[in-house]
Structure formats: structure tokens, C-alpha cells
Amino acid sequence: MARALHSASTAPDVELIVVEGGRDYGTIEAAGEYGAKVICTGPGRAIQMNAGAKAATGEILLFLHADTTLPGGYDSLIRKALQSSADTVAGAFTLKIDSPDRRLRLIEGLANWRTRAFNMPYGDQAIFVRADTFREVGGFPVMPIMEDFEMMKRLGRVGRIARVPEPALTSARRWLENGFYRTTFINQAIIIGYMIGVPLKTMKGWYG
Known about the structure:
Elements: H1 2-8, E1 17-20, H2 27-33, E2 37-40, H3 45-55, E3 60-63, E4 68-69, H4 74-82, E5 88-98, H5 103-118, E6 127-130, H6 131-136, H7 147-158, E7 160-171, H8 173-178, H9 180-196, H10 200-207
Parallel strand pairs: 1-2, 5-7
Antiparallel strand pairs: 3-6, 4-7, 5-6
Helix pairs in contact: 9-10
């Protein structure tokens, strides 16, 4: 959390909002150190992100996971990406995983290829979107899992999704704790399960 907040606080005139989903792991204290506004909600990533977006006053929304760190100058990179074409409404950063494990370079490569080929970045790539577009598509769908996947589908219907070449650095914690092969298998099983209609609650159980 502290690393994510530090990276976000490096840009001037940025409104920091931290949404706590009921499991306070020192969130309020960490947020206070960086002057962030704290909102408390029930659990659920979609619920939390929608609450943060509702409280935000800016024209651009950036959704940053607690275990993801932004590159320097991220604010200028976001504005440049949104101005890259008239139909660009959202975007995300290139994925980089914080580990020297060479196997994770494959995961990065596949994720970044998916973003380029299918306009389908995931939440750990620090998704950003114009605030008016976010409201137009109804925000993140309240789902126990895959809310970022569904959100990208909605945004892709109304405009272009840009990819920032500079990387957002995300934690390798899940791979380190659960093992590379098990984590990769579960991630892919969830994507396939979503495509074929496996109940969301079942897939949430797989994810843990």
C-alpha cells in the first residue's frame, strides 16, 4: 500500500482516494501519511472502485491496486495516451511483475500481447479512464471477480483503449506464495471459466 501511495503522490495536483473494504491492514494510517482521503465500504473490488470514483472530482480516473507501483511522470503519460486519438477513452500501463523469475517474463509478455491485440488490459496494469466515459458505461459491474475484464469490454464498445509503453510494477506475491504453475493455471482457468459461464462465486473460490 505504501509503495502504491508513494508512486501516486509524486504527481502534482492529483487527488488521492483510498477505499478500505473492511479489512484495515494499516490502510488508514498509510493513507494519512500521504494526505489521501479514505472511504470505507463493504468488501468487493468493484464496490470499492465505484465508491472511489463517485467521490473523485477530476476529469480522469486512475484505478491503482494496493500492490502496484506507477512509473515516474505517470500523470503526463496518462494525459498523452488519452490525447493520442479522438476516440481514446481509456488506457492502462504495460505490465511488469516485481520478480527476477524468468518465467514471469512469459506472463508479462502474454498480458501485454493481450492488451495490444484485444484491447483487454487487467486491473494490475493500472487502468485509467475519462470520468465522463466511466459514468456513461455505468462504472465497474458489481461482480465477485472479473470486474476489470467486463469493464474493458464495456469501454471497448465506446472507444479506443490505449496502452502506455512505460510499465506499472505489480507485486509477484501471489506467484511467490502459491507457486508459479498453480497461480498461472488458476488465472487461466478463471478466464476460460468466465467464457463458458462457470458461476462467478465458484471462480472466486478458485482465486481465493
